[in-house]
Amino acid sequence: MLSELFAAIDVGTTNTKVAVFDEDGSRVCLRQVRCSAVVKNGIHEVNPENWWRAVMKAFLDIDEQIRDRICSMSITGQGPTIVAIDENGSPHGHAITWLDKRKSELPDDLKEEDNSIDEQERSVLLKLQWLKEHIDRRVFLLQPSDFLQLKLTGSLVNATFPIEGFLPWRKDTIERFHLDTHFMLPPVVEPGSVVGNLTQEASEVLGLHRTVYVVAGAPDFAMALIGTGILKDGYLCDRGGTSQGVTLCSRSCIKTCGLMTTPFFVPGLWKISGVMSTTGKAYEWFVHRVRQLESRSRNLQQLNQIRRPTKIVFLPYLNGERSPHWDSKARGVFWGLSVEDSFETMLISVMEGVSFGIRDLIDRMEKSGAAVKKIRTTGGQATNDLWNQIKADVLGKEIEVPATLESELLGTAILCISVFKNEHYLETAEKLVKIDKTIKPDESKYETYSTLFGVYRELYRRGVDLFQRIF
Questions:
Q1: Can you name the residues that pair with 82 across neighbouring β-strands?
Q2: Which of 104, 135, 230, 264 is the most buried (most CB within 10 A)?
Q3: pLDDT tens for residues 318-369?
Q4: What is the CATH number for 464?
């Protein structure tokens, strides 16, 4: 008899992915559908129904024999993204993504220094204030994964850990700034809880059994922590996609300028994290926008022949920057170009620049007293062996590459598998997360990269006034 299978959905900034895993955590199949967004003059919106259409397309592309074996599914996704839902369960306009730069003024008390509100939550509140001024009714606030959960089960909930740092918005903050006049928060359902079975309509359009049940997930960065086994003191996750998440699991509660420190979902541990805005996006931008490659694979194969370090310093701030600067006016910079530099050399400098950004965050953690014992990389960047080596060389530390690089999807599937096996998801993760290889740093390159890292930091410091003057 064939064993049951478990589906995981990840609503990314660019693509929506659906993967199916077996109970040993091995991936059976993966489908990916690109979702279009409205991008113009700082606006970055998505029609939520695009995510649902992508999910339908992905499932129907999976072999029927595989679909017949799926017993449960869970959902994760990007954020904080604002999905407004009316009382009938329909989207009220487009979703406002985390890349969106619109904002409005909040009450004067938010302008004062307030250590209870980090920069990411402040950014969300500014967008909510803008939305409040442009709607005429009360709406529920969902994340992309919550919206899909609503489509699948008919249940209106916020699925996440009920802990500061994992909640996209807090009830007390919404009330404090009088946003509750327009926004309602559904009940929070903790990850690993069964939300319900598929509706008849969902089962029919996805080609799944009506008995399939949906397990509550959590934001993508949280699922990546489970999917990479970053569940112990000193373990750090480098999650590289369109943007970058660098998260340390720490026994010590350390406050670090420019980063965010909140309780971890494992009792007794803390989450110290930073988020960079356009890292993988910078790579994609350079390859596809700066130069249209007729034969991308042929050109990129030449990268290993380029001498490193390049000595070109790239600031990857193409849409402002979040951690550690929280500067919406920061912009990308290539510094140190010469007439001898090629497209391939500049592309490597993009990878180096992102790696410098990661080092900046880790350096701030360590100088504040945090211990970084182990680094694991995941996401699309981790498929690039050269980029993994650059990160190791820039950091001067070993980089572990997990066997499953879609860590958000694996972490999401682990929640389903743990429910099926009736065990805690931490226990399931301990069994299923495997390391494929370890990348060791080149010490001679590390020394040169350390000098260039100093230039990287100084470039931003010297450019702050110029960014403010022009942008």
A1: 96
A2: 230
A3: 999 999 999 989 999 999 999 999 889 999 999 999 999 999 999 999 999 9
A4: 3.30.420.40
